[in-house]
Amino acid sequence: MRAVVTGGAGFLGSHLCETLLRQGHTVVAVDNFCTGSPDNVAHLHDTGRFRLVQADVTEGLRIEGDVDLVLHFASPASPVDYLRMPIETLQVGSQGTTHALDLAHAKDARFVVASTSEVYGDPLVHPQPESYWGNVNPVGPRGVYDEAKRFGEALTLAYRQAYGVDTGIVRIFNTFGPRMRPNDGRAIPNFIRQALMGEPVTVAGHGLQTRSICYVDDLVAGILAMAASDHSGPINIGNPHEISMLDLAQWIVRLVGSDSPIVHIDRPVDDPTVRRPDTTIAQRELGWAPIVPIEDALHRTIAWFRGHDGEVPPLSPE
Ligand code: NAD
Ligand code: UDP
Q: Which of 114, 117, 121, 7 is nearest to 55 (CA)?
C-alpha cells in the first residue's frame, strides 16, 4: 500500500509513518513544519520507502503515482499553537482538508481525517458518545480549532455523499508520548519538562478539570484499524482513563522523582471541564481498545524526554 500522511513530521504523524513503514508500506509525508520537524522522521529515510515533502496543504496537495490511503493529520493541535496561528488553523481545516479530500477522490484512495474530542467543546454529556453534538463556543478563542475540525468533518461527509469517496472520521482524545515538543504547551509535555528541570509545575485553575489520556501506540493502532475498515465514523479513539490535571501533575512529579512545587496559573477561557470518550463503537466496529497502562506510558515518555535522542525506549521501565 502507498500512503500519504499530511502532518507526517508532527507528533502523531511521525508515529503513523513509522508504523506504516514497519508494516511494509510506502509512505509520503507532507508537512510545512509549522509545528513539526524533519527530525521526527529522519530515521525513516533508511527504509527506502519513505519520502518527506515540504509543502503547505492549504495551498494544494499534488502527489504523483498511485495512492491507496490518505491520512489527513496536518493541523496545529496544541492550544498554544492554534492560538498563535488562528487563521492558519482555520485554513488547514478548510482548504487543507479540501485538498486532501480531492487527492483521495482523484486516486480512489481511502481517506481518514484526524478530528478531535474538541468537537464536543465543554461537554454537557459525560462520557462523550459520538452521537453527542457538543457544546462549542464558535467565537471563543478555541473556536478557531474546534470549528475548523467541525467543518472538516462536515466536508468529509459531503465528499462521501457527493463523490462516493471512501472516507472515515476519527475523533482523537488527548494523546501523549515520545516526540511531543517539550515546549508545545500541552499539559503532559509541560509537566514533564517542568518536573525534569526542577521548575514549578503549572496547573491551570484548581486542576480539578479532567482529561482522558491515551498512549500514542494505542492511538496509532486505532487509527490504522479505522484506515483498514470502510467505516465512515465518526469514531472516538482515546483511552477512557480519566484524570484531573492536579492528580496528573502530582503523578508526573512523583514518577520523575522531582521536588518541583505545584503552582496554580489562570485557567484558559472556555477550557473544557471534563472529557472522556465513550469507546463502545471503536470496540464493536474496529475491535480496538487501548492496552498500554498509563503508568508504563508515562515512564516511557519521561525516559524519552530525559534522553531526547530520537530513540524511543522499551515499554516496561527498566
Ligand atoms: P503536531 O503539531 O505535532 O503535528 C501537526 C503536524 O501538522 C505538524 O508536523 C505541522 O507542521 C503540520 N502542519 C500543520 N499545518 C500544516 C499545513 N498547512 N501544511 C502542512 N503541514 C501542516 O500535532 P499532533 O498532536 O501530532 O496532531 C496531529 C493531528 O491530530 C492534528 O490534526 C490534531 O488536530 C489531531 N489531534 C491530535 C490530538 C493529540 O492529543 N495529539 C488530539 C486530537 C486531535
Ligand atoms: N493545563 C495545565 N497546565 C499546563 C498546560 C495545560 O493545567 O501547563 C491544563 C489545561 O488548562 C487543560 C488541560 O491541562 O485543562 C489539558 O490541556 P492541553 O493543552 O494538554 O489539552 P486540551 O486542553 O486541548 O485538552
A: 7
- Per residue in 16-38, pLDDT (tens digit) is 999 999 999 999 999 999 999 99
Q: Is 96 in the pocket of ligand 2 (CB under 6 A)?
A: no
CA of 187 to the centre of ligand 2 (A): 4
- 3-class state of residue 83 by DSSP: helix
Q: What is the pLDDT of residues 69-123, one digit of tens each?
A: 999 999 999 999 999 999 999 999 999 999 999 999 999 999 999 999 999 999 9
State the Cα–Cα distance between residues 289 and 279, nearest whole angstrom.
8
Q: d(Cα 190, Cα 154) in Å, to the nearest integer?
A: 33
ipTM field: 0.99
Cell of 82: 492554534
Q: Find the angle CA(290)-CA(296)-CA(300) to the nearest 5 degrees.
A: 110
For the chain, report the end-to-end CA distance as a whole number of angstroms: 36
Q: Whose CA is nearest to atom 13 of ligand 1?
A: 74
Is residue 240 within 8 Å of residue 274, measured between CB atoms?
no
